[in-house]
Amino acid sequence: MRAPIGDFDEARPAPECLDLLTAPVADAVRAWHGDVPARQLLYVDTDPAIADTAVFVEHHGADLLTTSANCVVVAGRRGNASTLAACLVLSRTRVDVNGVVRRQLGVRKASFAPMETATGETGMEYGGITPIGLPADWPLLVDSAVVDTEWVLIGSGRRRGKLIVPGKVFAGLPGAVVLDGLGTA
């Protein structure tokens, strides 16, 4: 099957690639029940050695500059209470951690979670964290521009491999809150 974005040798429905996904992502695909059928979640094999955005885009197509998204884990603090959340923004933008994220989570301080926390709490590899398969009780803050993008390239839970997903899927994931201005230039 041909991928709807990018230049990849092959795209396969994610339900056929469960063994290539981390356990939380595979479990989420296995239990999928969204407006979009699970077969529309596509897996593409990628080389982790070319995961840097500039090299990745050069190798797999310039259209990925506008259709790929990053999922990052943030930690918010208010007093002694700590909150973990995930943020999904288009790759050409940065997460507004000190503005939109802090206000949405109702915390005094927000920052990117340490790598050990992000990987330990998600069960995913650093550089491959994806919104599909996150802990269900986490807030998932999604920039509206991601939802408005027809097809979006995201992590697969591992550094090797990516998922290509219709953008509208993200609004229906557990804990999702769609926000304008979450991603800033």
UniProtKB/TrEMBL annotation:
It comes from the Bacteria. Residues 66-166 form the YbaK/aminoacyl-tRNA synthetase-associated domain. Pfam families: tRNA_edit. InterPro entries: YbaK/aa-tRNA-synt-asso_dom_sf, YbaK/aa-tRNA-synth-assoc-dom. One of its GO terms (molecular function) is aminoacyl-tRNA deacylase activity. This is YbaK/aminoacyl-tRNA synthetase-associated domain-containing protein. It comes from Streptomyces tirandamycinicus.
